[in-house]
Amino acid sequence: MPPPADIVKVAIEWPGANAQLIEMDQKRPLSSIIREVCDGWSLSGSEQFALRYADGPQLYITEQSRSEIKNGTILRLAISPARAARQLLERIQSHGIDARLEALKELAKLSADPTFAAEFINMEGIGTLARLVESGTHFGEMLAFTLTAFLELMDHGIVSWDLISLSFIKQIAGYVNQPMVDVSILQRSLAILESMVLNSHSLYHRVAQEITVGQLIGHLQVSNQEIQTYAIALINALFLKAPEDRRQEDYTNPLEQHLTEMASTLAQKHLRSIILNHVIRGNRPIKAEMAHQLYVLQVLTFNLLEERMMTKMDPNDQAQRDIIFELRRIAFDGENDPTGTEKRKAMYTKDYKMLGFTNHVNPAMDFTQTPPGMLALDNMLYLAKVHQDTYIRIVLENSSREDKHECPFGRCAIELTRMLCEILQVGELPNEGCNDYHPMFFTHDRAWEEFFCVCIQLLNKTWKEMRATAEDFIKVMQVVREQITRALAMKPSSLDQLKNKLRGLNYSEILRLRQSERMSQDDFQSPPIIELRERIQPEILELIKQQRLNRLCEGSCFRKLGNRRRQEKFWFCRLSLNHKVLHYGDLDESPQGEVPFELLSDKIPVSDIKSVVTGKDCPHMKEKSALKQNKEVLELAFSVLYDPDETLNFVAPNKYEYCIWTDGLCALLGREMGSDLTRSDLDTLISMEMKLRLLDLENITIPEAPPPVPKEPSSYNFAYNYS
């Protein structure tokens, strides 16, 4: 007979004594259980003791967290959090250097525990640590442990960052500004400054006075990618929290943009070239966190365009109208303006029509819709000023055509700008967990404008290849969007490489790709083929199911989302080879291969699993789903619900792992696999199998008594590479 659900069997250790094996009744008060354990070892003062996990982070067990204890867990009797906090507080203020160092080392480890942190903070522990830092008497390991403990304690959100003193900020900034400082101290100092900026509006101003982006450039030129990552993260934090009037000011001439110190520093050639040469093109592969910070920097830089994108043109603003006059002058410079007002107006109307504006009489009205607003006009003027020959060629080439196949430059430029804003998500906040940065945008000081210039030439070329007319405008824009998104997916490293990718994606190639994809999805629609497809589908589904389960048996590493993404914590989960148990456990770092079952201390019998939920239905996503920056995390979240009323919460590292795990868990529970990946694999593999079976047949006929379906799947090998 199985034990009651409220009883868990655990082992409890105490130094120098044999472990106690007890059946812990989860309905009994924790204090009563601790008293009984202390009595077993003849220890008095049970109120001075507590239980902690013996493995992993070794967290204290509380009434709130005790439900997470599983059968077979090894616990350890330890001094209570309050007693530990009091002792450590006394030891870190002692005169003995060795004793103080050991105390700070232990404190750095214990500070990650929320129960201990609350006790230590209640004893004014953070103030004590801050004074140790402000004194400037700590160096080396002692200072590194002090900063680690401080950061861990503040990360719990118990104390407001606004309480931090100016002298503490100056001391931390001093470590960052020193030319030679210990790597561990520099790393923690950068992380503390980043947390200050992100968590306190008032501290942003203080930190911005002590640290400039220019001073952080030196930390991007080191060989340590962790330091580079922290430095870019601090740059991003300063940029993200900068007031709007400091990020970007209004400017009158779009070719003479005036940005404030922050935006100007981010845009200047020096910083961009250092990131390009020392980070992106460095000798080390880009790690996930660095890729995320580069993505954030890319998003924040493009978001400088949002104000212009959302600014409507004022038809009565003479300075704005002069820009349109300049576009006309550059295109038709050889023609002298007539002297009469009516003649000039008629000529202007004709010229604006040749420029491809929708409103020939008052083209300013074309820029009153947002997005793209004035940003489209900025792009057009950049092309006309910087790539004048290209601009003139595009305009004159189309204005001289009489066969209704002219490409309207103005209308196309406006719609293209809107499209590029959508593709690059201008104005959107960065997504947590997204690493989608494009190296080519770090290769030019005016990357956005140059990107537009490449794409407007592509649009003009595609228009001619399609022999399009005005009625085909939407179709052309759809093809151009596909060309651009396919090229960006190839991650070109430079604008020149982007041009090469786009040259290979001409209209004929897009048609070929579409046809190929359509054929792989639809194949043929004749009744014999449909019947063959239906016969093949079950065995292909079984192959996919086995592949998913095999991947679950190999296991995957998942990241625990915390307040600071660079101090990553990982856990690993894999399915037993007999498909009966899910094994999981915490890891100190991301593994390089499979993790043995022996290192995974926790497990869930598959028979106990009730269901799998995804997205906003997950318990760990319900409080986060409203945050815009967690949108992508929400799409990667899933949870296993199992008896009795327990959950195992996941956030997949990417969409592929999400599909593999959700499909695999559904297959494990005997439910339908419904992810996009499964549908895509099913269509692809069925098409491959059908082509193999049809190679030897000139005419397909289905006999009245169909032959038996072979037990072996087919001649092709299902060692399908999903990565």
UniProtKB/TrEMBL annotation:
Which key words tag this protein in UniProt?
Apoptosis, Cytoplasm, Membrane, Phagocytosis, Phosphoprotein, SH3-binding
Spell out the InterPro entries in the cross-references: ARM-like, ARM-type_fold, ELMO_ARM, ELMO_dom, ELMO_domain-containing, PH-like_dom_sf, PH_domain
The protein's location, in the record's own words, is: Cytoplasm; Membrane
GO terms for biological process, alphabetical: actin filament organization; apoptotic process; cell motility; phagocytosis
Q: Where is the ELMO domain?
A: 319-488
Which molecular-function annotations from GO does this UniProt entry contain?
Answer: SH3 domain binding
Q: Entry's PROSITE patterns? A: ELMO (PS51335)
| Location (main, coarse) | cytoplasm
Q: Which GO terms describe its cellular component?
A: cytoplasm; membrane
Q: Does the keyword DNA damage apply?
A: no
SUPFAM superfamilies attached here?
A: ARM repeat, PH domain-like
For the keyword Cytoplasm, the answer is yes
Record function comment: Involved in cytoskeletal rearrangements required for phagocytosis of apoptotic cells and cell motility. Acts in association with DOCK1 and CRK. Was initially proposed to be required in complex with DOCK1 to activate Rac Rho small GTPases. May enhance the guanine nucleotide exchange factor (GEF) activity of DOCK1.
Protein name, UniProt field? Engulfment and cell motility protein 2 isoform X1
Species, as recorded: Betta splendens (Siamese fighting fish)
Q: Which gene encodes it?
A: elmo2
